[in-house]
Write a sequence for this structure.
């Protein structure tokens, strides 16, 4: 089984990060989870799930929600967390969704939070870093930051679901994007309908 970092930042689209988290846990992969301070609010607003307001409260809720799972929930301000060091191996990291604030921090190496530090570690160790930006339209600043991140080795995976598979629900759209993220992590999956010319 693999070991992955999933970060959910404070942009719209928390469903992508939560769906990715739940798939990896279901398949028994170890997941280090980081939530930005705004992510809990987005989860509550968009998914109707109360993950609490403070780290300890969220940790308790997640332990009950995902019992006996290989989930390691990390405090977003804990720079002593295992994933703050390159000596702790992971197979990749996904920031889903990736806010423009988080993108700016990652693309300029700020490391001012655990999300930014873990992304910095992922890049410097030449591991897979997947950014799922969720903003529209994009300003020149956003585009420059995305290009900078891509030039450093990150993969930019916009939350742009395909329609060739004739999705019948929002979940179909979500799973198309999540499936692509899993593909990029080299995680075998069949969560979405792949293109077929036949």
């Amino acid at each position: 089984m693999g070991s992955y970092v999933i970060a959910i930042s404070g942009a719209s689209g928390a469903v992508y990060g939560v769906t990715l988290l739940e798939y990896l846990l279901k398949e028994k992969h170890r997941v280090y989870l980081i939530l930005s301070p705004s992510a809990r609010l987005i989860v509550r607003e968009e998914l109707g799930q109360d993950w609490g307001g403070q780290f300890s409260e969220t940790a308790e809720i997640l332990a009950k929600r995902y019992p006996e799972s290989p989930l390691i929930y990390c405090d977003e301000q804990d720079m002593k967390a295992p994933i703050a060091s390159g000596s702790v191996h992971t197979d990749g990291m996904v920031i889903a969704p990736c806010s423009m604030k988080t993108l700016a921090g990652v693309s300029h190496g700020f490391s001012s939070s655990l999300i930014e530090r873990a992304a910095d570690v992922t890049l410097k160790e030449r591991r897979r870093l997947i950014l799922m930006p969720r903003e529209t339209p994009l300003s020149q600043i956003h585009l420059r930051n995305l290009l900078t991140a891509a030039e450093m080795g990150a993969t930019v995976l916009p939350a742009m679901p395909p329609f060739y598979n004739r999705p019948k629900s929002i979940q179909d759209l979500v799973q198309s994007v999540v499936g692509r993220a899993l593909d990029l992590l080299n995680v075998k999956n069949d969560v979405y309908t792949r293109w077929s010319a036949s």
User: Anything to note?
Assistant: The two ends are 34 Å apart (CA to CA).
